[in-house]
Every structure is written in structure tokens, then in C-alpha cells.
Amino acid sequence: MKIGMVGLGRMGANMTTRLVIDGHQVVVYDRNPEAVAQEVGAGALGASSLADLAEQLSAPRAVWIMVPAGKPTDDTILELLGLLQPGDIIIDGGNSNFRDSQARCAQALAKGVDFIDAGTSGGVWGLKNGYCLMVGGNEAAVKKVEPIFLSLAPQNGYAYVGKSGAGHFSKMVHNGIEYGMLAAYGEGFEILEKSEFGYDLHQLADLWLHASVVRSWLLELAELAFRADPKLTDIQGYVDDSGEGRWTVEAAIAEGVPAPVITMSLISRFVSRQDESFSAKVIAALRNEFGGHAVHHENSVGAKA
């Protein structure tokens, strides 16, 4: 089928390529003309604007957007709603907040346009392995564009999961679980690295991929990382978060669900961004006051200058 793709970053570009390979016609638009030209060279049809993209699609139109969550997504949807007609479909495959998706669905339906929230997992490996798609929205609208989902996903990697917001809510929790898994791997390998045994961390990561109960795709990626840089010397221990972990914790609080692992994995990311922890200074000072425990001073031996 024919579909528009807005946003040609790391995922949007690979998704376009996968769709073209599977025989779909994809009209692409990105603010960066070079990104558009690259996809045109791979078989897509280029558009110079959202208006041009909408004009090249035939009714009922389907447009997939892969732009950053928040205002960029809002602005893109608002402009598209001025270009599309009743019966057309917008699919948001970005990491949007599910409440935003529900509001956007209502906004689109007021114009007679269906809005689908497609939680999309697979990262930069999706081109080769396919994307896991958790799709929410009007089920009849989802069925109309199902060939797109089936081409993007591997076998059994796509499912309709419920009403508007369900796709992005499930992807949010998916990413919250990912936070906890990443934290566990990080802590485990640090314990190994600090131990007296001088482990070859790449050896252990590779070993655990064979019949171990902790084997996973994330561990496969750890093996690749340690193979390339056994001590991770070229990587700074600064970990960003893109929002889904925070939203998962907020949802857990709202639902009264204890989620200590996901919550602490999020907090640990905040800690990774501190050059100096003031809370640690307070704890050190109090330990000195009540117990006479030694305090490390700035510029002293073993302390950060």
C-alpha cells in the first residue's frame, strides 16, 4: 500500500527502507532535505513539505509520524489535520505519552481523521530484525493499515492491544521494564569489574549467552559492547532518560502499584549525571558528626580535585 512517513531519523529511515523492500510505496518528508534524498535513493518518493506529502497520497491517506515526543509531534499533527480529509489516518510511532495520544485522538476525530498510537520497539536493529509493534486506537482503522504493521514486524511481533492510548501505554511500561533490566546488568557487571578476580567481562557476557537464565538480547548487546571496548574506556557513565521511565513510575503511583525496581533504576540515571552529589556530602558530614567517621575532603588524596 501507499503511506507517508514523516521523520527520517534513525528509526524512521530504517522503517521506510523496510517498507520499500516489502513492496510498499512510501512518500517521505523530513526537515532535512539530505535525509529525504537518501531515502529517495533507496526507492522512496520524496516530498518537499507536509502539504506535498499529503498531495502525493491518495484517499484514504495514511501518514506515519516518527518525530520527537511533545511539541514536535503536536505541531506535526496540527499541520497534518489541516491537510487531511475525513477517513484519513495518522499513526504516531514515537514515544509519546499515552495521555497526549488520547488527546490527539480526540482532536483528530473532531476532524473525521483516525489516530493510531503505535508503540514501536526495535531501535536501530529494526531494519534487520523487524519492530515489535503495540498498536492502540480504533480497531477498524488499524485493520485498514495492517499491511504496514505486518511488513514492519517480524512474525508474531505485531498486535492490536486496545483502545486509544493502549499502544503507547504498553510501550511506556515496556521501557520501564527495560530501565530495570539495564540497571541490573549494569550493577552486576560493576560488581564483577570491582572484584578481586580480574574477570574478562566480554568472556562472561559471551558465556552467559549460552543456556544461562540471564541470557537476553540486551546481554547480546553487552557482549558486543565489551568485545569492542573491554573496559568501556571510551564511554562516559552519563545516562539520559527520554521520559518513559518517569511516566511508568507516575502510572505506578497513580495505580497504587509498588514498582521499586523501575523507580530506583530511574533514580540511578539521575545519579549518573552528577559530578558531585550534595546528598552524599550531607551523609558524609552526618556520619562524621554522630560516629566520628572519616571525611574525604576536596583535593585530598583519593578525592576528586
Q: What is the mean predicted local confidence, pLDDT?
A: 93
Low-confidence stretches: 301-305
H/E element sequence: EHEHEHEHEHEHEHHEHHHHHH
Query: What is the CA-atom radius of gyration, in angstroms?
Result: 23 Å
Describe, in plain words, how this protein is organized in 3D.
The termini are far apart. The protein is an alpha/beta fold. The relative contact order is 0.08. Strand 2 (25-29), helix 2 (33-41) and strand 3 form a beta-alpha-beta unit. It has helices at residues 10-21, 33-41, 50-56, 71-81, 98-109, 126-129, 139-144, 146-152, 166-194, 201-208, 217-228, 244-255, 260-272, 278-291; strands spanning 2-6, 25-29, 45-46, 62-65, 89-92, 114-121, 132-136, 158-162. It has an eight-stranded mixed β-sheet with strand order 3-2-1-4-5-6-7-8, with helices on both faces.
Protein topology:
Blueprint: E1 2-6, H1 10-21, E2 25-29, H2 33-41, E3 45-46, H3 50-56, E4 62-65, H4 71-81, E5 89-92, H5 98-109, E6 114-121, H6 126-129, E7 132-136, H7 139-144, H8 146-152, E8 158-162, H9 166-194, H10 201-208, H11 217-228, H12 244-255, H13 260-272, H14 278-291
Helix pairs in contact: 9-12, 9-13, 10-11
Salient structural properties:
305 residues; alpha/beta; eight-stranded mixed sheet; disordered C terminus
